[in-house]
Amino acid sequence: MALIQIDVDNREVLDVLGKLAQRAGDLSPALKEIGEDMLASTRRRFATGTGPDGARWAPNTQTTILRYLGSKDRPAGVFDKRDGKLTAKKGVGVAMGKKPLVGRGTLASTINYRVTDGGRTLLVGSPQKYAAVQQFGAKKGSLGKRAPWGDIPAREFLGVSAQDARDILDTIEEYLMP
Questions:
Q1: Residues 103 and 38 in one domain
Q2: 54 Ramachandran zone, left/alpha/beta (phi>0; psi -120 to 50)
Q3: Residue 40: which H helix or E strand, with range?
Q4: Could you report the per-residue pLDDT of 123-169, keeping only the tens digit for each?
């Protein structure tokens, strides 16, 4: 799995995690529950097209839409069979409705979590090589030949939202209760 490290900087969450680590030997059960919650939260971000802070992801560029329309993954009926032009009904709808990072075999379907370090560390991420580019963005040419057709805006999908922090605290509190 390609690792992208997202550090939690919420002091309350970090303090409670520290207490949990001191009181409990094996944190795996709590971390697995938190992992499931983070997995669900991250998947919701793909459905809504928003980052952990609630900001909407940048829309697809015209170049991205044109590349998608020319790909083998596009839905049938996008182009008129007679003249090869974009159909007014389906084609335009597909082009305008294409959400960033959403589609068949995409990043969203590869998000997973893993508890490591003897049950003391939770990793949430994707094995996809392009995950970091989507998370942090990339300038044209910054990755050599691997950078596609232009600047790619950051579309943060990993991270801890305010609701995630509350859920983490609730989960840890359950595990700390005698």
A1: yes
A2: left
A3: helix 28-48
A4: 999 998 888 888 998 887 777 765 566 778 888 999 999 999 999 99
